[in-house]
Amino acid sequence: MSENRIKYRHLQCFLEIVQQGSVIRAADVLSLTQPAVSKTLKELEEILDARLLERNKKGIELTKFGHLFLEHASTSLAALREGTEKVAEALQQRAHKLSIGVLPTVATSVLPSAVKHFRESDTTTRLHLSSGPNALLMSQLRVGELDLVVGRLGVPEAMAGLHFEHLYSEQIVFAVRPSHPLVNKPDFQLADICDYPILYPPQESITAPTVDAFLLSQDITNIKDRIDTVSDSFGKEFIRNNDAIWAISRGVVAREIESKELCELPIDTKETLSAVGLTTRSGPENIAALGQFIEAVKRVTASY
């Protein structure tokens, strides 16, 4: 099809010749030689199989076909320029915006301090922080909706085209309120947790397979009162006011455990240790602010 052979230079030369009313003046404006402009016009006419311009004593005059083509050529070139400008604007906005995906394990333990450190050196970049299931965040990262995901290592099938940098390892804890009957039970056994409501990570969450495998290895398969939730605000409030048990990444409740608002049951969960780190798209990223933010996260987690 002829339209597939028409290039930007063809439209540019044709419109400039019409605008200037002269091939010579058009060549000057375009910083090209006259023969180059004439050749480009000839190529366009051959592609269209129609004469677009006629030379006469007055200079250049549009033919019938030239008039027909002029309107659409002008519109096409204007649309192309507008599209180019829009892309440039979007890139400029992106240069001043950083989109970070945050998993619950770092939302309260790492991110607040990391953002504080980042802001000490960069106050012009607008941070956009969003949370959600690991699979969703990885998908958004892969298609460019996010620039970085901070949290646990995703499952292998979700990591295609992505790069993970390990920062530290974290385990699952079983958190309760300090007055929970199991906290000071002398002969506490893991099976005792089945007598209480358990807040559990939903199957689609990144920690569910880890909790499943741990409990199965301990022959715990009879949890009857189970509440699936990914809401850390609900989880904290619920176990503060009930004798429920929360199977959760330690980072989500680390602050509450340190302040003794909550405590963890004496359960050895070392086998649930999982990598926490930074996930980015594979290949180079030309975003200066991203590198600065990554360094801020590393600064916070250096002592973990």
UniProtKB/TrEMBL annotation:
Keyword DNA-binding: yes
Keywords: DNA-binding, Transcription, Transcription regulation
One Gene Ontology term, aspect cellular component: cytosol
Ion transport listed as a keyword: no
Gene Ontology MF annotations: DNA binding; DNA-binding transcription factor activity
UniProt xrefs under Pfam families: HTH_1 (PF00126), LysR_substrate (PF03466)
GO biological process: 3,4-dihydroxybenzoate catabolic process; positive regulation of DNA-templated transcription
Domain HTH lysR-type: 6-63
Homology family: Belongs to the LysR transcriptional regulatory family.
Protein name in the entry: Transcriptional regulator, LysR family
Species assigned in the record: Marinomonas mediterranea (strain ATCC 700492 / JCM 21426 / NBRC 103028 / MMB-1)
